[in-house]
Amino acid sequence: MKKIVRILTILITFTVAAQNEVIFDGATEAYNAGEYQTAVDSYLKILDSGQHSPELYYNLGNAYYKLNQIAPSIYYYEKALLLKPNDSEIRNNLSYARNMTLDAIETMPETGFAKIYNSLLGFLSFDQWGYVAVVFVVLFVLLYIAFYYFRYSSRKRSAFVLSIVSLFIAIVSLVFAYLEYNAFKADRPAIVFAQEASVKSEPNKTSQEAFALHEGTKVIVLDELNEWKKIRIADGTMGWIPSEDIKLLKDF
Fold first, then answer.
1. Residues 6 or more apart from 176 whose CB is under 8 A from it?
2. Is the pLDDT of residue 240 over 70?
3. At 12, is the pLDDT very low, low, confident or very high (cuts 50, 70, 90)?
4. Which of 36, 98, 154, 219 is deepest in the core (most CB within 10 A)?
5. Could you give the residue ranges of the DSSP H alpha helices within the chain?
6. What residues does each domain of the chain span?
7. Which CATH number, 2.60.40.10, 1.25.40.10, 3.90.230.10, 3.40.220.10, labels domain 2-98?
8. pLDDT for the residue 239
9. pLDDT of residue 156
């Protein structure tokens, strides 16, 4: 019985994947024909099926950008960047979309060490660092086996040195994967979807307005209380915003 269920699950998965591929190709054709809303609707159908990818988010960002819907455009570019952090095309298009936002917020400067650390750690996503670790563990094992079977001392020496280097890289990659994963879980970015959102000093409607934000602005969620979320913007300013005015990026 379990075997039949497993086979049915595999068949359903392949069927859904095949259908999504057809929908994706149709959406891309609609986009190229200038039918941007049709493209958006088709791409969203794929998301509703539970499938997501940087390419899907990127195409959604492009379609929304063509429709001049800045908040969802930035939202999906940011989601694509979470899955593919070093993609230059995603970064360029995200930059174009950000230029259409109203809020000009200066980013807090980073120290030299923090900048190098974040750049190195964020060079790959945590799962990519994990893949690197696995590859070098396998390489370490193969080189160690080669060291055991090689007869000549020069080859043994080379295999031993390379195996130690591979092990070192694997350990470093594993540590980076762990640190990046913790940073990923702790970081809760969101995009403002309200055309204009009033950020309060306290989590209630009667409190004083601290500042206002507009659609497309990126914020970091720090805390939440009832229907309010405490946020921080790029310059370090904090306040409370209604939960309905923002959309969390890490919902996958």
1. 120, 121, 124, 126, 129
2. yes
3. very low
4. 219
5. 2-32, 36-48, 54-66, 70-83, 88-98, 112-121, 126-149, 153-186
6. 2-98, 112-186, 189-248
7. 1.25.40.10
8. 96
9. 87
Amino acid at 210: A
Task: For domain 189-248, give the CATH superfamily.
Answer: SH3 Domains (2.30.30.40)
Query: 88-98 and 54-66 helices cross at what angle (nearest 10)?
Result: 30
Q: Is the Cβ–Cβ distance between 202 and 192 less than 8 Å?
A: no
pLDDT at 3: 52
CB 197 within 8 A of CB 242: yes
Q: Which residue has the higher pLDDT, 142 or 11?
A: 142
Contact 140, 117 (CB under 8 A): no
Q: What CA–CA distance (Å, rounded) separates 237 from 217?
A: 13
Residue 114: the pLDDT is 72
